[in-house]
Amino acid sequence: MFKKILIANRGEIACRVAATARRMSIQTVAVYSDADAGAKHVSVCDEAVHIGGSAPRDSYLRWEKIIQAAKDTGAQAIHPGYGFLSENEDFARACKEAGLVFIGPPSSAIKAMGLKAESKRLMGDAGVPLVPGYHGADQDPTRLQGEADAIGYPVLIKASAGGGGKGMRIVERSADFAAALASCQREASSSFGNDAVLIEKYVQRPRHIEIQVFGDTLGNYVYLFERDCSVQRRHQKVLEEAPAPGMTPQLRAQMGAAAVAAARAVAYVGAGTVEFIVEQKPDGSMNFFFMEMNTRLQVEHPVTEAITGQDLVEWQLRVASGEALPLQQDELRITGHAIEARICAESPDNNFLPATGRLDRACWPEHVAFARNADGEAFHASAPVRIDAGFGEGDVISPYYDSMVAKLIVHGDTREQALARLDVALAQTHIVGLATNVQFLRYVARTDSFAQAQLDTALIPREEAQLFQREPLGLALAAAAAIAQTLLEERACEGHDPFSRRDQWQSHGASVRPFEFVFRDEAAKAALTCGHDGSLHLVVGDSAGPLQFSALPDGLELQFAGARQRLQVYRRGETLHVFGAAGATQIVEVDLLAHAGEAAAEVGRLTAPMPGKVVSFAVKAGDKVTKGQTLAVMEAMKMEHTISAPADGEVLELLYAAGDQVAEGSELLKLSV
User: Fold this and answer.
1) In Å, how far are 147, 235, 412, 415, 449 from 419, measured between CA atoms?
2) Which of 151, 285, 341, 597 has the most CB atoms in a 10 Å sphere around its CB?
3) pLDDT of 314-340, one tens digit each?
4) Known catalytic residues?
5) What predicted TM-score, i.e. pTM, was given to this entire model?
6) Which of 467, 485, 504 is the last residue of a domain?
């Protein structure tokens, strides 16, 4: 077994690998960029080496620096995690040439499965079912258009070297194909350095089911059952679970055998995932088709760990060191049900726009982490609630990398029990400082489609009315909580003498204290009446009644408008973040004195909604534009985002050029409206 390994990654997965290595008494070396100098993965490893600038191309993609860091620190092997260099055949080959073990498959397997067109040919030869499509080398746009027309719409354009949901476009009709192809090729070239694509029939009501496979250097192969990853947005997974609902033993065996055949076809070694598109027929039966093979550990590997009780990173380390697989196929069992939720810094109500900023508060439910406990023993993979996080309170989520903050994994005896645990755990997850998808995840898990396991990749758009632009607490409760929090803060500042009291108490009669708020972008007013006896009466919106509250060790208990609630309230400037059992919301308590004299908001200007790079402008100065027309494309956190015209008007001036980096709030162009 290795004595020291270098982890060529960051964030959650670097911390995850380090935890298992520590349990196995293997020393670890972290690498980090300028942006990650104070990151959690740096502190949890035994050593750390700085490898360059904040952008991935200047650090985490500089494999020559990573290999040199491994040599300098005496590491014997490199674990690539996922993303970055994990599926880079040149990196795997360079590790071997440098005398280092690449904890992953051989470069030949990465190459064979890295190009989707070539992998489809190999899988066809191995007898694995394929979706009808074009996987040829001729990339002439006219040829590709003709192939798409022949296959029949809708079709899916996929970057041949792609992964992680990037470089993919669904095309519903022939007239839209050329524009979608150009966009897909641009994203593929930017993300993977290769703009080749393949065209496939877009399967209706598809499920995304993948099989976890493992191979060793002795020629042994097993599959560790399946995961359902159908719930996706922008082709990126949101919720994953194992086992797949509705899976029959017969279909599981067929898909497992096909996945093992795929691994054998490329002499695979280590952890890999064979992904299938599963077509759901009206009679309830399912057909499966090979989609791709990910030649690395998957983000969602914890759900497999939960139902099997196995540490997959330990398996990786043992196999890479030359050992046989820890278990054979007939020794593997499924126990219970597990669900993983990806907690991301993004705004679901704003088209999943990535968010950046500081984690002012990061409060998690009671859980275990995949690391040593106080006695130095590893927590079990099948813990009821587990959190794999690469960030903690005070850390900054930067625009240079993907938006995932942490993974929440729950395990239960049944799917129903796991769902209940997921909802409670998400309700107890409080993140303040930047937008996250935590509330959105609760909405998804509560939909009839997900609760009843009516799964397909269109679940999110189908349930749109249940998922977006919802308010879980409402103005009355949010305002009451904000006022209660304000009064508690004021009381904490009071002295013992009556003259320091700030509650507007007066010796005769009642006093009325006005409050002004902004809630869901609309102004609101409230009036709090303080009686001579100390009683409080609140009027806000259409609600009125006595207000009672008391401080708790972890929040406050509030009674208003016929409801009693236990809430947690966190203040960040004028914004108060309110968390309750029903969900979370934000309300702004306006300080009128602080805003006195501010000018009215400017009009006719468009600003960057997040820090990132300007990919292109679709207009030039002097162009007439209509509401909703695309003006520019920005890239942040590895995703493209379209900036559209808010109204009809004329472009007066472009203030940046394609390729420029811009800060959040930077004015991109001037528009007369």
Assistant:
1) 43, 23, 8, 6, 13
2) 341
3) 999 999 999 999 999 999 999 999 999
4) 296
5) 0.82
6) 467
